[in-house]
């Protein structure tokens, strides 16, 4: 099959190209899915840098497509539309024509949801879902969280989190930080958009926000800023684990009795799905979409650049856009031709508010 | 009044002595309490080292006694027995004959509980209570926590936590670490007592304990050990904020989606009691004691050494015992004479299991 594969570790421009690789075979009892759309995440590029063996390596950790082979005819018959999350320890990712998919990390896509929309759910949507659940925001009941700060609100997870939190709590004050995407954040459901945490929000011992969803590297400067603005007994959820996670200063956080959640949706694979079921989270999000409660925050970037995966690595291609770090909304990439990938709905870019 | 006061920063043997100091006057609307018993905690000694101004300084952050003056006749009449927590930013502590007490950090002691028992509650009991609540263990309903590791299980907070957790969950596996107090931990309700985390418990990606209550400094070595043994989606509650809290490695914790709680009962003072009510926690614990559900884990050390505060600083006195770091159970110190401090009940050292 064709895949966007890396032949060595490094920067995608030098290492990634369209190559013919084997269709993954192991384990045989997994679903074989013909990929329609892959989603794209900053972590895809990070994986290219950190991997040292076992090439060619195909990046991409989630997507959507059509079931081609199955050992589970009832839940996932051949021909069914599914979205899926992939084990990040495998070398076969979703930047390829076929994936082997663990059914516990897959969900059926109902007919009213496009495969393009569905591809945006498994990694970014579920990360937003799990993070908000940890922060106590996935409940109808009265919550102590009245102000949520999303650091990096314009990206894929931030856009999903904004929409999900807004759908659950119409009166929640959602503050997004973004250098460049103010209009996107506000249109997406944010109450305000600020460039930086420290300059804009009052901090100190009493803090000013009840919960923080941190979607960028928790550098010492950022950690200090978050420690200042979080209220006592508040919560911070860390979603990015670059080098900073190895040396976090929780001094001020401690004296506020703050809770620090760490969140990676990939933990489900380490635990054999005993503590987290991405299939259930995906089904929940798909259900919200089917009933009109939430609309996928697909990136408007896709209007501007070629989303065809065969041109992903060209200058201003989709990987370049991802590399820039200034994406608005959730980027996905068309892998299959239109017979597999389906047509884009008119509703793809509808404002979710 | 007499107080065990420090005249300068430093080690207690050089700085603390029995001195005459003014009865605290501010703020005037607080309760004035004649102290019967002060509790003793490692943080008392740390305060002596870190304080740089405003001497004489009286350490001690909680205790019990008799109300002498009150602006709140209904809840706290003159003559009432109370236990109380003190604001750690003030220079007047509980190693003294009188304290000014915020009524929001005080609770009435019912007649069947001795003032000695009551003095063990406000700091150590409430810290244990809040920590266990954060870890999800203060609920009758089914909890996902089947194994609780208490690092430093023999000390005051650890002994309280063991008894409270055992009272709520008779079948919970409670593992305590202690170098020297194996028998105390087991008698106190622990399922097992181990000397160190890393050598004794299986770790790795799947971990082996559901929750950890860390009551010693989270050094890099200990943090690494806890990261190994905690199961994915598990919880760690940090209660000690020495230098290590400024540089915590959450790398492995991150990839397990672990939650890190930070707990200091003193946060209530920073927040004007808006998020935490020590008076309610104390009342809850006193109620459990009144109904026989829990018995205060008073230290058997008190049998061996002189608990009279006027001899607290002599060799092998109670401060020396506290300084050793190897206390079993909750240390308290008699301040008043027997007419104030009351008689010791025969039930003080009853096994709580």
UniProtKB/TrEMBL annotation, chains A, B:
Pfam families: ADH_N. Residues 13-333 form the Enoyl reductase (ER) domain. It comes from the Eukaryota. InterPro entries: ADH-like_N (IPR013154), ER (IPR020843), GroES-like_sf (IPR011032), Lipid_raft_assoc_Zn_ADH (IPR052585), NAD(P)-bd_dom_sf (IPR036291). One of its GO terms (molecular function) is oxidoreductase activity. This is Enoyl reductase (ER) domain-containing protein.
